[in-house]
């Protein structure tokens, strides 16, 4: 009987986790941001010096970081990142180092080469950056694959 109850709880947890919004994992949700202002923040904070953005390769300056960072933002993905994943990547980039590419492209010492913008970026810029990045992802479901 206990085993059946445990299996029922696992099934219920799986079903409930599938009901969450893409941008809002348990207990975490950003207010709606302005994607256009997010693009402005992306440019003002000079994020383009290291990152290309899917679909905007011809609209933004080319990355100039040396060695090349090679972390392209957006594009086709199995699933869209959550608000929490995007926020963590911006505010704490060393939390989960991007696995592709040569280590020196993305790592400096023990952490990410990404500049710490926490002292210069406003909360609104962060919210808008997350909205901007959400718009740049296409999931395999959206592409019809």
Tell me what you see in this structure.
Helix content is 37%, strand content 7%. The protein has 145 residues and is mainly α. The protein has a two-stranded parallel ribbon. A hairpin with a 2-residue loop joins strand 2 and strand 3. Helix 2 crosses helix 5 and helix 3 crosses helix 5. The protein starts with a helix and ends in a 6-residue tail after the last strand. The N terminus is likely disordered.
What is the spatial order of strands in the main beta sheet?
1-4
User: How much is the radius of gyration in Å?
Assistant: 18 Å
Structural class: mainly alpha
Low-confidence stretches: 1-20
Average pLDDT rating: 77
Order of helices and strands: HHEHHEEHE
Helix content estimate:
25-40%
**Percentage of β-strand residues:** 5-15%
**Main pleated-sheet profile:** 2 strands, parallel
- The N- and C-terminal alpha carbons lie at a distance of 41 Å
β-strand number = 4
Task: Count helical runs.
Answer: 5
């Amino acid at each position: 009987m206990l085993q059946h109850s445990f299996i029922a709880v696992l099934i219920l947890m799986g079903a409930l986790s599938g009901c969450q919004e893409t941008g809002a994992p348990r207990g975490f949700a950003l207010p709606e941001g302005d994607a256009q202002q997010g693009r402005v923040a992306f440019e003002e904070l000079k994020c383009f010096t290291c990152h290309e953005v899917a679909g905007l390769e011809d609209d933004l300056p080319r990355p100039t970081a040396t060695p090349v960072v090679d972390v392209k933002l957006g594009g086709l993905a199995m699933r869209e990142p959550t608000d929490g994943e995007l926020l963590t990547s911006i505010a704490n980039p060393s939390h989960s180092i991007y696995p592709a590419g040569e280590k020196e492209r993305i790592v400096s010492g023990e952490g990410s080469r990404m500049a710490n913008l926490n002292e210069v970026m406003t909360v609104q810029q962060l919210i808008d950056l997350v909205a901007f990045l959400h718009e740049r992802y296409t999931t395999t479901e959206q592409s019809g694959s």
